[in-house]
Every structure is written in structure tokens, then in C-alpha cells.
Design brief:
The protein has 439 residues and is mostly helical. Helix content is 68%, strand content 0%. It contains 13 helices and no strands.
Length: 439
């Protein structure tokens, strides 16, 4: 692309409406959009200004129009996101305990499995909502059932980490997937032709995958990691197979906003968890001198993570299944690493006050590795399409390397990583401003 905007340009056109006509949706599930059939006023799901009567409580679940203007996230979608973050927080807390106790390998594997299930259910919800949310009573109830499922899932996270008991995790995921299937069957009932076939393939694929996940309850511990890899690939193949003849009509601006909002919530949870850890360390161990560099560096890392992500007008690139699938699936790494940064800061705090049974190097890596992974993935999925020239293209990859190198700065590692990410943002802004001044 020839645009001079970059992921560090604070005036980037992130709020503009994306191009219509995009198609394809990586994953689907029940959703919660406060919108349905456009009324006379032009606002979906609301009576028109001419005094039209309210829509019936239960309506056919039909496709939304791609040409809708001002499509935005709804209160039910935001509520859904907040409930999902409860489970994300549980996974992060257990990751902290595993790493701090010297079981980083097993902790990372468990975290990857738990976070994938949460991520995929959220992806399913968001893309389905973008294409089919009609906000009737039945749609809302099914969405609330999905929220109940994620809370059951969250209740089982600790047992999955500590006792390798996945029963509650599996049950919570089952609730969400059955709810998703019912949504697709509603679509199939209202649709015909290729669209109906897509809906039925989605419903069948989701149920078949859920049967596969049942292996977590019966396989020995050594085989669960391999089952996870197989089933994760199978889950991601469902949209590809389902949409081979018909692409669901998701809205690019709505989707980019949904991912952005969930990223905000995950980063907010990261700050919250890190703040509690620093506060506890100061109150219980009187370790202000040791924790101040960690707190300052961690805050800079999170601020930079927000800045780098949100200036990118990514909705303009979501025009096809191939682009959408890659972008949507890649957020597993973006969101997972963003949440892991908070867990890493907690680990660094516990090591600084002598509570963690790991080295300073390992504690530093708990922050710098996910931070570097976040920078590199955002560059790969977002910013490289908006860069002009080699200098702009190399900013984030070099920043990722410098962030990794900061691991070896001892007790100052987190602060150095924060300074690196802050300099990254400043460099990006400077390069963008210079490019804008050129003829």
C-alpha cells in the first residue's frame, strides 16, 4: 500500500467506516448485537421515527446487510466481553502461579490450551453477531447462555492447571458450543440454497469438534497436548469448509472494532492485575525501591501496546476470506501475549520480593518474551501494510529484538523493556511525521 499512515500515527483514520462487500468469517457463534432489521430511522433494531410499531420478540435469524452505516458494538457485546475477561483473568493468575513455582513449561502449555478455548468461543460469537445478530429475545437468551458457559469454564480453570481436571472447562465449552449450534440451526431454518448449506456445515462442524474435545476427559496427561493441537486445527478449519460456497456477510468496521474493544479489555485486565501485584508487594514487603522500576516499565509496555495497535485503520484490509481468516486467527497470539504481559509483570513482582522460586532472568523473560511476541505479531498482521520505506518497516521487528535483549538487564529488565517500547512509539511517530512532510 502507498499510504503514509502508520501504527504510530495518532491521527490515523481508525474511526472511519470500512469498505462494504467483505465476506468470510473466521469462526462463529452466538452473538449480542443490539440491532436487527433496519428501521425507518436507519438504526438497526429500533422503530423508525415515523412511529412504526416495535418488532415482534422472536424473528427469523437472517443475514445483516453489508451496506449498513454506523455499525458499532452493542451493550450486549460489551457485556459478553467483560464476562470473558473473568476467565482470561483466571488463566493469567494460574499462569503466574505456575511460572513463579518453577513450572513454566507446563504452565505455558495449559495457558495456551485455556486461552485458545476462550479466544475461539469469543471469535465465534463476534463474527456470527456481525453477520446475523437480529437482537430478538431468543438471540439474547442464547447469548446469555453462552455467558453462563464461560463462567462455568472460568470456574474450572484452577482445577485444570493444578489438578489436570478438565471436566468443568469442558462443560463450560460444551455449553457455549451447543448455544452456537442452535444459532446456526436458526439461520438454516430461515435461509435457503448455499447460505443454508453454510449454516448446516457450521452446526455440524461445531458439534463434531466438541466430541473431539471430550478426549480431554479420558486421555492420559501426556496425550492432551497432542489432542489440543489436532482439535485447534480442526476448529479453525470449520469456517474454511463451511464457507466454501457462501461467505457470511460480516461487517469489516464492526469486526475491527470488536477486536479492538476486546484488546482494550485484555490490556485493562493486564494493568489491573499488575497494579494489585505491585500494591501487595509494597504493603506486605515494603519493597517500593525494588518494585518501582517494574511498575514503571510495565506501564510503559502496556501503554505502548495500546498505541501500536489502535492507530491502524485495519478494517480497510478486511476484504476477503483469506485476509479475514489470517487476521482473525492471528489475534490468538496478539490477545494471548497481551494477557501474558500482565501475568509476567506479576511474576516479576513476586521474584523481586522473594516470593517466586525462579531466577531474575526467568522473571524478566516472563515480561519481555510476550511483549516481543506482541510487537512482532502486530507488525505482521497490522502495521506492515501501512509502512512506507525500509526504516518504517523495521521499527517493530527491531523493537521486538531489543525487547528480548532487555531480558538480560537484571532487575532493571522490565524498565528497560518499557523504555524500548516507548522509544519505539516515538520513533514511529517521528518517521510518520517526516513522511507526511515530503511532497
Amino acid at each position: 500500500m502507498t499510504s503514509t499512515s502508520s501504527p504510530y500515527d495518532p491521527s490515523g483514520p481508525h474511526g472511519s467506516t470500512g469498505p462494504q462487500g467483505a465476506s468470510g468469517s473466521p469462526g462463529t457463534s452466538g452473538s449480542s448485537s443490539a440491532s436487527g432489521t433496519p428501521g425507518a430511522s436507519g438504526t438497526p433494531g429500533t422503530p423508525g421515527s415515523s412511529g412504526a410499531s416495535a418488532p415482534p420478540p422472536i424473528r427469523p435469524l437472517t443475514a445483516r446487510g453489508r451496506g449498513e452505516e454506523h455499525r458499532a458494538a452493542t451493550p450486549l457485546e460489551l457485556f459478553f466481553d467483560l464476562c470473558f475477561v473473568v476467565a482470561v483473568a483466571q488463566g493469567g493468575a494460574e499462569l503466574v502461579h505456575a511460572v513463579a513455582d518453577g513450572h513454566a513449561g507446563q504452565g505455558v502449555v495449559n495457558y495456551a490450551m485455556i486461552f485458545f478455548a476462550l479466544f475461539w468461543a469469543w471469535v465465534n460469537f463476534s463474527w456470527f453477531a456481525s453477520a446475523y445478530d437480529n437482537d430478538d429475545v431468543l438471540f439474547r437468551v442464547v447469548t446469555l447462555v453462552q455467558i453462563a458457559g464461560v463462567l462455568v469454564f472460568a470456574a474450572g480453570v484452577s482445577r485444570a492447571f493444578e489438578e489436570h481436571d478438565f471436566l468443568l472447562v469442558w462443560l463450560g465449552y460444551l455449553i457455549m458450543r451447543v448455544a452456537l449450534t442452535s444459532q446456526w440451526l436458526r439461520v438454516a431454518r430461515s435461509a435457503s440454497g448455499a447460505e443454508r448449506g453454510t449454516a448446516l456445515r457450521y452446526a455440524a462442524g461445531v458439534l463434531i469438534c466438541q466430541v473431539g474435545w471430550s478426549g480431554l476427559l479420558f486421555l492420559p496427561e501426556g496425550g492432551r497436548g497432542w489432542l489440543f493441537l489436532v482439535m485447534a486445527v480442526a476448529e479453525m478449519c470449520v469456517p474454511v469448509v463451511a464457507e466454501r460456497a457462501y461467505s457470511t456477510p460480516w461487517h469489516p468496521h464492526h469486526i475491527s472494532e470488536r477486536y479492538g474493544l476486546f484488546t482494550i479489555i485484555v490490556l485493562g485486565e493486564t494493568i489491573s492485575a499488575a497494579t494489585v501485584a505491585v500494591k501487595t508487594g509494597i504493603e506486605e514487603y515494603d519493597a517500593l525501591d525494588e518494585l518501582l522500576p517494574i511498575a514503571a516499565g510495565g506501564l510503559l509496555v502496556v501503554f505502548a501496546a495500546w498505541w501500536i495497535y489502535f492507530v491502524v485503520p485495519i478494517h480497510g484490509r478486511l476484504r476477503s476470506n483469506r485476509q479475514a481468516f489470517l487476521w482473525g486467527y492471528g489475534h490468538y497470539v496478539i490477545l494471548g501475549s497481551a494477557a501474558a504481559i500482565g501475568a509476567g509483570i506479576e511474576v516479576a513482582v513476586e521474584e523481586a520480593v522473594g516470593k517466586a522460586h525462579i531466577s531474575t532472568l526467568a522473571a524478566s523473560a516472563a515480561v519481555t518474551v510476550p511483549a516481543a511476541l506482541y510487537l512482532l505479531t502486530v507488525w505482521a498482521l497490522h502495521s506492515r501494510y501501512f509502512k512506507v520505506g525500509l526504516a518504517q518497516q523495521m521499527v517493530l521487528p527491531l523493537a521486538a529484538l531489543a525487547t528480548l535483549a532487555s531480558t538480560f538487564a537484571g532487575r532493571w529488565a522490565v524498565l528497560v523493556a518499557g523504555i524500548v517500547t516507548a522509544v519505539t512509539v516515538a520513533t514511529g511517530v517521528t518517521l510518520t511525521a517526516r513522511a507526511a512532510r515530503r511532497p
